[in-house]
Amino acid sequence: MMKTKKILTIVLSITFLIIIGMPVTQAQESKGKKKEKTEQAEQLKEKKGQEAKEMAKEKAQIQEEKKGEEAKGKDKQKKDNKGKGYGKDKGEMSGKEFGEQRAEEAQMRRKQKQQELQETVSESEQKMDEAKTKIKTAKENLEKEKSEGKITEEEYKERTEKIQEAEEKVKELETRIKEAEKEIEEEEEEEELQEEEN
Fold first, then answer.
1. What is d(CA 134, CA 141) in angstroms, rounded to the nearest whole number?
2. pLDDT of 79
3. What is the pLDDT of residue 137?
């Protein structure tokens, strides 16, 4: 009889610890995932900044090439095919053809990077939705445990604070995603304007 009571109390203690630890581990898992999402969003911002700098450099270089060609007059084709920077290995192409080809390549790279950014944003949104459902489940479980008297008031407060921290991180991620979406929209509008001008 004593052995069964001891075994029963041990089993109940272990199940109690498991039940208490589940929401905490869920919160920790979601915490790690949210941290990963914020890091990804920051990396995307850095990539965008670098891409913009590269594109500005390319534009400036193309403009310099055009200015150099205009200054030299109508003598565009050189016998020795010397050039500056990217124009050295243009082969049989004229400066204009080469510049158009470079512009097309830059536009293709920009579209590809924009598509990658959109994919990352959609993945982040999906992960954010998963985190929201986990938080909702954790809240429901916490309230259920409190109403059933399975946890103390102190434990309830601690777990409530952890859930609130997780909610705040999800909100931060949500604002970062919205900012990224806004930047994508602005880039698309800018592209449309450039296409209309051409």
1. 10
2. 46
3. 92
102: pLDDT strictly greater than 80: yes
Which tokens go with 53?
């700098």
As a dihedral over the C-alpha atoms of residue 63, residue 69, residue 74, residue 79, rounded to 10 degrees, the angle is -140
**In which residue are the tokens 């900044």 written?**
49
The continuous run of DSSP H or E covering 167 comes out as helix 153-197
Residues, the chain:
198
**132-147 in b/e burial notation, b at 16+ Cβ within 10 A?**
bebbeebbebbeebbe
**Cα 122 to Cα 152, 155, 188, distances in angstroms:** 40, 36, 17
Residues contacting residue 58 through CB under 8 Å, at least 6 positions apart: 102, 106
Q: Which amino acid is at 77?
A: Q
CB 185 within 8 A of CB 50: no
End-to-end CA distance of the chain: 90
Closest CA to 168 of 135, 125, 124: 135
Contact 42, 177 (CB under 8 A): no
54 Cβ contact partners less than 8 Å away, ≥ 6 residues apart: none
With a CB cutoff of 8 Å and minimum separation 6, the contacts of 140 are none
User: Per mean pLDDT, which range of 44-48, 74-78, 117-121, 137-141 is the poorest?
Assistant: 74-78
* Residue ranges covered by each domain of the chain: 121-198
